[in-house]
Amino acid sequence: MSIHKMIAAHPDVAGNLNEELATAVRHAMFCAIICTSCADACSAEKMDMVQCIRSCMDCADICDATARVATRRSGSNEAVIRSLLQTCIETCEICGAECETHEQAHCQLCAEMCRECATDCRKALATID
């Protein structure tokens, strides 16, 4: 199953799929799950990971909201989509930078996902009028 196919199947899309936005939605969904998993793994670490956990939880929530709102195709709300994409970029950058400071494999994977999500959200943002 593909989120691209699901969005394209919406009657209001009518074959006019915004590929960049659909890709950003896909990566935001993945990023939300990866950040949630990283926060959980951080909570099992023996060292103080409070800031990393907070960054990951914030990022997961923002990515989830971005994906959910950007997936909706009925009506229009470009201002909110733009705002969420911008917030998602910033939040992913913050979370990625925090996770990069830790050697744990889960943090390194999370940082990589955050960078990918931020990149795709930037590309999608450029397509929203």
TrEMBL record:
Entry-linked PANTHER family: CYTOPLASMIC PROTEIN (PTHR37310:SF1), CYTOPLASMIC PROTEIN-RELATED (PTHR37310)
Phylogenetic classification of the source organism: Bacteria, Pseudomonadati, Pseudomonadota, Alphaproteobacteria, Sphingomonadales
Pfam families: Csp (PF03860)
Superkingdom of origin: Bacteria
InterPro entries noted in UniProt: Csp_YhjQ (IPR005560), YHJQ-like (IPR044543)
The protein's name in its UniProt record: Four-helix bundle copper-binding protein
